[in-house]
Amino acid sequence: MAQILSPLPGTFYRTPAPDKPPYKADGDAVAVGDVIGLIEVMKSYIEVTSDVAGTNIRFSVDNEEPVMAGTPLADLD
Q1: pTM surpassing 0.85?
Q2: Residues in domain Lipoyl-binding (predicted)?
């Protein structure tokens, strides 16, 4: 099992825009470099990418939830 951690503090978004589907849904497979969400810091949006590959992603935080640097965002099998 591997974890994807927040690279910095801010607000975590699972979708690229409010009317768009999430980058990844619970249960999806993830490849190295896949975008799983965005972190917003002072109106700047930084992509969160996976540095590991895995199956069955499970998000630990909800959409629009504030996070701190190092907070686990998702687990991968």
Answers
A1: yes
A2: 1-77
One of 3.40.120.10, 2.40.50.100, 3.40.50.620, 3.40.440.10 is the CATH number of 2-76, namely: 2.40.50.100
The full set of domain ranges for the chain reads 2-76
The answer for residues whose C-beta is within 8 angstroms of residue 31's C-beta and 6 or more apart is 50, 53
Give pLDDT tens digits for 44-58.
Answer: 999 999 999 998 999
Task: Please list, in sequence order, all residues whose beta carbon lies within 8 angstroms of the beta carbon of residue 74, skipping any fewer than 6 positions away.
Answer: 3, 4, 24, 36, 57, 58, 59, 60
Query: Across residues 59-71, what is the average pLDDT?
Result: 96
